[in-house]
Amino acid sequence: MINRLLILAILAFTISFMLTPFVKKFAFHINVIDIPKGKRKIHKKPIPLLGGLAIYISFILTLIFKLGKLSNSELGIIIGATIILIGGFIDDKWDIKPLYKLLFQIAATIFLIFFGVKIKIITNPFFTYNQYINIGCFSIPLTIIWVIGITNAFNLIDGLDGLAAGVALISSITILVIALLNQRNEAAILMAILSGSILGFLPYNFNPASIFMGDTGSQLLGFLLASISIEGAIKSATAFAIAVPILALGLPIYDTLFAMIRRKINGKPIMQADKGHLHHRLLGLGLTQKQAVIIMYLVSAVLGSFAIIAMQISSQRSYFVLATVILILVIVAWKCGFFKHTD
């Protein structure tokens, strides 16, 4: 199994690495370029977008080329990812309203659910004699909230060269390890392919970036990680261990939640952009882009390690680990002024 995963990851890496320069030329050709305007822009010169297209093509081609027939869940993920890619492409080209972006995300998630990728049973954080809870009619809304939430969290964290791609790579490897530990081969294959696709793109996206992934990529990565984590972050054949993926995908989740809390405390609209995200704060301390990104990589890796630990222990203890991590992060965020408003 390990050899097969390695071959698929190398294939995905090769396709992504070779394809990205052509995607860059294509973005210039159709004028999908990020021109630095406004206070929130950090780069100084126009940079092509659409880097997510290389990741998407690499992921899809490698998935199709793998041995064996595509499963229903894989078909659902492919269709959903395609819808997300289309919505992201339109946003990168014409900068559509958040509502329209949300409609694409809902449509993608509905297809995902239709093909059977949804949260049905969760681990019970309270009682040992009844380890699992069948959530019944709450399955669909919980899946929609999870997928759309993670999709947008990765979209929001995409603020520095290589940040979203690197964090997504670390999260992919974390969930790959978790899937292997639970013998969830399908999820492991998907994560190996996604890891290779991201790794092939990252050399072009790391500081100084020659191409950005754009909404085409950041939303795509969030959607794929959210979708595959439903299949891979489990403690039994069917139960979704909530603490595990929340830790594995922790950095974008907490950064987004802290942004929402900060805006609420300061009486600002929840959707109003600001410069209070973690990467903005690190830059404000005088760090370079590379230094800030590496620190966030390390934080993501530590959270991923906690996710693997949480997978190995009882459900009750895993929730305790999650609660402890959240409490520590909230205290640190409060002490460092993360909840103070910054324009």
TrEMBL record:
Single GO cellular component term: plasma membrane
Chief localization: membrane
Named cofactor requirement(s): Mg(2+)
GO molecular function, one term: metal ion binding
EC number(s) given by UniProt: 2.7.8.33
PANTHER family membership: PHOSPHO-N-ACETYLMURAMOYL-PENTAPEPTIDE-TRANSFERASE, UNDECAPRENYL-PHOSPHATE ALPHA-N-ACETYLGLUCOSAMINYL 1-PHOSPHATE TRANSFERASE
Name of the protein in its database record: Putative undecaprenyl-phosphate N-acetylglucosaminyl 1-phosphate transferase
Species whose genome carries this gene: Clostridium acetireducens DSM 10703
Encoding gene per record: tagO
